[in-house]
Amino acid sequence: MTTHIKSAGGPVVRILDDIQALAAARALAAGFAKGASLRDRERQLPLAELEQFSRSGLWGISVPRAYGGAGVSHVTLAEVIATIGSADGSLGQIPQNHFYAVEVLRVNGSEAQKRFYFERILAGERFGNALAELGTRTSQERRTRLSKDGDGFRINGRKFYATGALYAHRIPVSVIDDDGVQQLAIVKRDAAGVSVIDDWSGFGQRTTGSGSVVFENVWVEADEVVPFQSAFERPTSLGPVAQLLHAAIDIGIARTALQDAAVFVRTRSRAWIDSKVERAIDDPLTVREFGDLSVRLSAAEALLELAGGAVDIAAQAATADTVAAASIAVAEARVLTTEVSLAAGSKLFELAGTQATLSENNLDRHWRNARTHTLHDPVRWKYHAVGNYYLNDKNPPRHGAI
C-alpha cells in the first residue's frame, strides 16, 4: 500500500516552553480520543490526525533551545507522550522514534547536521525509523549495508518494525558501514529505491505503520550519515530517553483502560448477586479492585516522573554514573508501566463483566495495545538490571534496550 505524505510546508506552531507543550498535548488528546476506537477497529491510518499533531509544534519540543526549540524537560516529554497515548495508543507511539532521532542528532550530530535537521523538524518534518530487522540472531544485529560510492554511499537492506516510517518525511536507517561500524543514515522517504510497505499485522498498535521498509541501492550524501554506534560506546542519554518514551506510551494506555473500565461499571455493569447491593459501583470487591489498579497506576506515574528527572540529569551531564542511574530509574518505571498497562487492560473485563467483551465496544484494544507494545523489550531483563545495580554495584549495559 502506498500512502501519500503531505509536504512539510504550511504553518507549524512554535512551542516555547513546557507549559505550552503540556497544554497543546491536552487539547489534541481531547480530539484524538473521539475516533480512536474506530481507527483501531477498521485500521484507518491517522493521516489527518498526524498532520494536526505535527502542525501543533509538539514534534519539535525536544529540539534544544539553542536551535530554536523549546528544549522541554524529559518529565514534560514523557507526559506529552502519555497524554497523547491515553487518547490513542498508536498516535502516542508513532513519534517515539522521531524523538529518538532528535536525541541521536543532539548527542552525535555535527553542528551542521544539527542546524539543518533541527530547522526542518521545527518546520514540521516527521522522522520515522528503520532500525530493526527480521531474521537476525539477536534484536540488535543489523545486516543492512552502507557501502561507499564516490562522495556518498549506497544503502541495501530490508527493515521491519519501522514504526512511523509510513508517515515520515525522513527515515533514519540503522546501517553497517564498510568497516563493520553501525551508523545512522537519514534517508528521504521519497528517495529513489525506498519502498515503505504497509504490512504491519500486529493485533495491537494497529495504526502505527510498524511494517517493512526496503532499500535498494539508495543513494545518501555523506552529510546525511550520523555516527550511531559511538553513542553507546560512551555514556550518553540516548538509551534512557528511548526507554522513557516507551514507558510513557504504556502509561497512556493504562490510564484510558482504567477510565473506560470505570465508565462501563458505572453505566452498564450489574452487581454480583452475593454482594447484596443494587449497583456495581457499590460492590465492595469491585471497589477494592479499582483501588488496587489506581494505586499501581499512581506508582507507575510517580516512577515515570522520577525517571524523567534522572534522564534530565544524564542529558545535562552524561557520565557513566548519571547515565547508569537514568537507565535504572527508567527500567524501574518500565517494570510498573508494563505491569499496570497489562493489568488494567485485562481487569477491565473482569470488573465490567461479559457485556464489555462485545466487539462493538472494542474495549479489548487496550489490552491488545499494551500487550503488543510491552513486547518491545523484555521486562524480566529490567528486573535483572535493577537487581544487579543495587546488589552487585553493576551498571546496566548501554545498548538502548534497558
Taken in chain order, the helices and strands follow as HHHHHHHEEEEEEEHHHHHH
Within the largest sheet, what's the order of strands? Answer: 1-2-6-5
Helical segment tally?
13
What percent of the residues sit in helical stretches (DSSP H or I)?
Answer: 40-55%
Taken together, the total number of domains comes to 3
Low-confidence stretches: none
CATH-level-4 superfamily name of the largest domain: Butyryl-CoA Dehydrogenase, subunit A, domain 3
Strand count, sense and closure of the main sheet?
4 strands, antiparallel
Give the amount of beta strand, in percent: 5-15%
Domain Acyl-CoA dehydrogenase/oxidase N-terminal: 25-125
EC number: 1.-.-.-
Organism: Collimonas arenae
Domain Acyl-CoA dehydrogenase C-terminal: 244-377
Quick recap of the structure?
This protein is an alpha+beta fold and 402 residues long.
What does this structure look like?
- By secondary structure, the protein is an alpha+beta fold.
- The protein has 3 domains: about 20-125, Butyryl-Coa Dehydrogenase, subunit A, domain 1 (Orthogonal Bundle), CATH 1.10.540.10; about 145-225, Butyryl-CoA Dehydrogenase, subunit A, domain 2 (Beta Barrel), CATH 2.40.110; about 235-390, Butyryl-CoA Dehydrogenase, subunit A, domain 3 (Up-down Bundle).
- The protein contains 13 helices and 7 strands.
- The chain has helices at about 20-30, 35-40, 45-55, 75-85, 90-95, 95-110, 110-120, 230-235, 240-265, 285-315, 320-350, 365-375, 380-390, and strands spanning about 145-150, 150-160, 170-175, 180-190, 195, 210-220, 225.
- It has a 4-stranded antiparallel beta sheet with strand order 1-2-6-5, with no helix packed on it. It has a 3-stranded antiparallel beta sheet with strand order 3-4-7, covered by helices on one side.
- Helix 9 (about 240-265) packs antiparallel against helix 12 (about 365-375).
- The longest helix is centred in the last third of the chain and has 33 residues, at about 285-315.
- It is globular, with a radius of gyration of 21 Å.
- This is Sulfur acquisition oxidoreductase, SfnB family.
- It is an enzyme of class 1 (oxidoreductase).
- Keywords: Flavoprotein, Oxidoreductase.
